[in-house]
Amino acid sequence: MSDSRARNSEVSKMARQPRPRLTRDIAAIPTYAIGDIHGRYDLLVKAEAAILRDGGQLPGRKLIVTLGDYIDRGPESAQVITHLMEPPPDGFDRICLAGNHEVAMLDYIDGWISYDDWMQMGSAELLKSYGLDPEHLPLVFPSGAKLDAFIRQSLPRTHIDFMRAMPVLLETPSVIFVHAGINPKLRLSEQTDEDLVIIRQRFLESRVPLPKLVVHGHTPNDQPDIRPRRLNLDTRAYRSGKLTVARLWQGQVHLFST
């Protein structure tokens, strides 16, 4: 095996390692969960401004949890990632969970999925945000291998590393924060990363009681989907212009959106 192929193999092995899972007690911490952003940097800035106004009335440090899917579909994926890599607002901590779109981008970089499969995720808009032309590139690089190599070399390594390090779950004594949901038939310790970032019907339609309130995104709706043990904050921000935020504090949930 050549040196370059060996390095690619090692990168792929790293990408398939289980992602971190965090635990934290937020009982005394006002916590703001932000739904799927999908390249809408403008809405993310507005949402954070609203969070700062709201949090200014509350005591102590606060926490922002972003629920994944920062990239694709909307026009400013690169700007969203750059912003999330910066320090959070004063008085706040921030946890950025992985979504299936971040996982898919890394799968493309590591050679697990093809360029065409990745483009079906709405990733043409992501490439444009990094200054690449997804319509012109295949003409310049008719060889798929050369096209892939150029794109992989052009995407910022710092952004790739940031996405690799994203945890896939935040568990608190009363709330689970995750991108897609959980498999209700399995204990949290048995959940696969794949379930946590792509599960849909088995989670949404299950009649098995959930162990805690699950705050998630992934399944788009016109309005937040509010259930006794489930709160879906994905409101199609990239298309609707509505990025939804939930504030959880002292056993209550308060919703607002851009």
Terminal-residue CA separation: 52 Å
Q: Spell out the helices and strands N to C.
A: HEEHEHEHHHHHHEEHHEEEHEE
Mean pLDDT: 93
The number of distinct β-strands equals 11
User: Helix/strand/pairing class, anyone?
Assistant: alpha/beta
Helix content: 25-40%
Characterize the overall form.
globular
Largest sheet: 6 strands, mixed
Cross-sheet strand order for the largest sheet: 1-5-6-7-9-8
Poorly predicted spans = 1-15
Tell me the number of helical segments per DSSP (H or I, 4 or more residues long).
12
Radius of gyration: 19 Å
Assembly context of the chains: single chain
Task: Give the strand content.
Answer: 15-25%
Structural features, described:
GO terms for molecular function: hydrolase activity. It comes from Rhizobium brockwellii. Pfam families: Metallophos. This protein is 37% helix and 18% strand. The strands form two sheets. Strands 1-5-6-7-9-8 form a six-stranded mixed β-sheet, with no helix packed on it. A five-stranded mixed β-sheet has the order 4-3-2-10-11, with helices on one face. A hairpin with a 3-residue loop joins strand 5 and strand 6. The N terminus is likely disordered.
